[in-house]
Amino acid sequence: MGISVIWFVFSVITMYFQTTDQVEFTFELMDKAKECFYEDIQQNTTVNLDYQVVTGGSYDVDVTVEDPAQNFIYRQMKSQLNSYTFNSLIEGTYKICFSNEFSTFSHKLVYIYLQVGEEPVLPGVNNHTTVMTQMELSIQEIHESLKSVLDHQTYHRLREAQGRKRAEDLNDRVLLWSLIETVAILFASIGQVFMLKHLFSERKHIPYNRL
């Protein structure tokens, strides 16, 4: 009986996440480059866009959102992170662009989360007016807990990526400085050897007068 209940709860939550129209990913944005993503959205649909520059340069990019009529509904210059929600007034293909064209040498790693439409309710839980049963309450609590776990996992993944990138940059700088010091010490040692060799091999001529 217990296994059946657990399997039912897992099936309901799995159906929920499969029916949610949302996407989450990270991508690399090269220097002097621009990446655009396109999404077909119905009219009067709520859209939520979250983004964050994880690594690279000053952690900033230019972000724009265009509607199907090529009107800018969102524009942010040199932004590190933000959460933007809008309602689609017209139906069509919306364009979301991330630009790193102002950067001459540093590329960025950008995280993006896009949710189209309202968050759907759990099937069979919130579609009635009567008091929820103990199982339905448990399903809703598990659902909220899973959402919280996913949010924390995303947050810690981004923090871990930032920390790893900073550690790699610090390691590269330490390695470069160590190589410079090694070369400097090597040249100084060779110079000292030649100076000592020249000092001990130099002969002094003592002048004398003939009788």
Keywords:
transmembrane, elongated, Emp24-like, GOLD_dom, 2 helices, 41% helix, alpha+beta, 2 domains, Jelly Rolls, 4-stranded antiparallel beta sheet, 211 residues, membrane
Structure, explained:
- The chain is of the alpha+beta class and 211 residues long.
- It folds into two domains: 17-120, Jelly Rolls (Sandwich); 131-203.
- It is 41% helix and 30% strand.
- It contains two helices and eight strands; from the N terminus they run H-E-E-E-E-E-E-E-E-H.
- It has helices at 2-19, 134-201; strands at 22-29, 34-41, 46-55, 61-66, 72-79, 81-87, 92-99, 108-116.
- The strands form two sheets. A four-stranded antiparallel sheet has the order 1-8-3-6.
- Strand 4 and strand 5 (72-79) form a beta hairpin.
- The protein is elongated and about 120 Å long.
- The relative contact order is 0.16.
- The model is unreliable at 1-19 (pLDDT under 50).
